[in-house]
Amino acid sequence: MGNYIFLGLVLASFFGLSKLFAKAGVESWKAWIPFYNFFCLSKLLNKPWWWCLIMAVPGVNILMYGVYGFNVARAFNKPSNGDLLFASLLPYIFFVKIGLDPTAKFVGLDRYKVEPIKFIKNWIDPIIFAVIAASIIRGYFIEAFTIPTSSLEKSLMVGDFLFVNKFAYGPKIPQTPLS
Question: What predicted TM-score, i.e. pTM, was given to this entire model?
Fold first, then answer.
């Protein structure tokens, strides 16, 4: 069931991107090719090309979807807090909403209506970068685990930390059942 939900969200996102591309003057068929669509979206938003490579990293791609949604909202001149929050949390649906909205016009990130920068909005980009960097490091490189019970070793006590090299042991995937 989860695979069908995921497939539905991806197809809805691609449909929304095809409508967004058409409004921005990009050929809409480019939205239906995985990874190439985010490469084209990065070029459209004047962002680095390697952002599309981050979309291939499991777990981090969910955060990057929100970053893309945030930038799409600004590029289509939707700078209100509600629109930016909606675009960041539900970009799959936001792409469809903006794509089907007849009043939405692509203005680009360099020409969107500038609002006075507030304290919180000034800190959003560094916080998002820190969360993405920490997710990549904890998910794929190294993580500290706490020793939960006493050990036979005299030097390892309960509550001590072990740093685990995830290159050697692989990422830890949750094994919790859905039901």
Answer: 0.69
